Fold:
Amino acid sequence: MTTHGFSDYVAHPRHGPLPMILLAVTVVTGAIDALSLLALGRVFVANMTGNVVFIGFALGGAPGFSLWGSVLALVGFLVGAMVGGTLIVRAGGRRDHLLRNALVVEFVLALTSLIAAILMVDGPGRGYVIVVLLALGLGLQNAAVRHLAVPDMTTTVLTMALTGIGSDLRKRDGAAVLRRLSSVVAMFLGAILGTVVVLHSGVVATLVLVAALFAAILVVVWAVGRRERPWQVAA
Structure:
């Protein structure tokens, strides 16, 4: 089993710093889903497969699942994906511009969620507002990342990555296994981080963390995009 290809992939001129940046975004996604599931009414804002299942649970009468929360998250995600389509057109084939603009919107939405969490009275309405705002950002993120087309870096859905790991182990393709495993680990670490902050510091602190992480990633994207590189232009 060879693994040297993983470092080549991370530093490949076709993708430049995008794989590492998207891994960082995946960590934030894990933290956001931890927040929404644990503190915003047992809802996913990134994992829409889980959300559809939750809607089924709620309609079937299972206790503890929020029908409105899951529906609002799903609608917000779809609207966010539509906005992402607009950003793709406006980026004009520049991958760095697309990622930067998407992160700016996500940061603003996270900041707005933080303001809502601080100003609104604790209750279902507050949770719904935060869910919709975060779902908008995650839908936009998915649309942008899909267009960036960095192999195995979806930042949200891990089902195909896990399937690929099993297939690549059989083929003894160590580089592909490590590439896909890195996405799983990033999501895992983000979920742990988000859970710890939610349980020990609450919703506001978690949203501060999310906004700060988006801001930090945005600074990195701005810095690496200052000089022209092959990875910045879509093939």
